[in-house]
Amino acid sequence: MRDYVxxxxxxxxxxxxxxxxxxxxxxxxxxxIDGVTYGDELNLTPKEFYDRMRAGxxxxxxxxxxxxxxxxxxxxxxxxxxxxxxxxxxALSGGCSNVMAGAREICEENPDAKILVLDTLNASMGEGxxxxxxxxxKEEGKTIDEIYSWLEExxxxxxxxxxxxxxxxxxxxxxxxxxxxxxxxxxNIKPILHVNPEGQLVxxxxxxGRKKSLTTICNMMMESIGKFKDEDDYICIAHGDALEDAYYxxxxxxxxxxxxxxxxxxxxxxxxxxxxxxxxxxxxxxEIR
Length: 289
Known about the structure:
Layout (H helix, E strand, L loop, with lengths): L3 E6 L6 H6 L3 E3 L2 E4 L2 E3 L7 H9 L5 E3 L3 H13 L3 E6 L7 H15 L5 E5 L5 H15 L4 H10 L4 E6 L3 H6 L5 H9 L2 E7 L5 E8 L1 H16 L8 E6 L3 H14 L4 E6 L2 H7 L4 E6 L4
Parallel strand pairs: 1-2, 1-6, 6-7, 11-12
Antiparallel strand pairs: 3-4, 3-5, 8-9, 8-13, 9-10, 11-13
């Protein structure tokens, strides 16, 4: 049986040290600021990126590059590996279809190769949690097919609840109207959103005030976590350069689930360009996506 490699895209938002330690191969998504494209060898630090957004810069984003996908997959296949690729939601980006097309081409040219592409229908560390689980199962000796099947079967148990700090970014992304953004900002309204079963970002409700929004997403997690409350799974906190709020949210979680492992990391620019500085979310295993 051939050995296999887990690949993913940069929107998974897992810490760089984890990616390196576990030998995850990352295919980049890209962002453009003032005509300069970032995402591969050229990158801004999270602080630089979000400070530019705070100063009024509006980045644009691009999905993964088909040539990069093809070269990455071909290199791994040529070295004798099969591939399990864990992808950002197909409902939010063309990256997943790019990967699927690249995988088909490589497999047609290499009949003995196997490339399985999992559309997580999820985003940020919600996608990253699929990788955490895949790595855990690989280290337990599971085959590529066993991992793929388990992730597909449990896809709707990977949950995200999040809030944003600036309604203007949701307006620019077409999520809310300009009037709603202006009025909501004036009265300190904070939307609560999630990634629905179709892999789309959907508003659930609104609350007034930052602290209330963080408490609300924690409460929503507790309402949805169900039987996964006592499982040995990470709870992930993704933030748009809002580390202090991430630590506050971590305290709220540990007050209720003191034995849970927490992983905190920054939201990548190709997602943060749409959610903006201060966005923050909880990603967890639950009974109700």
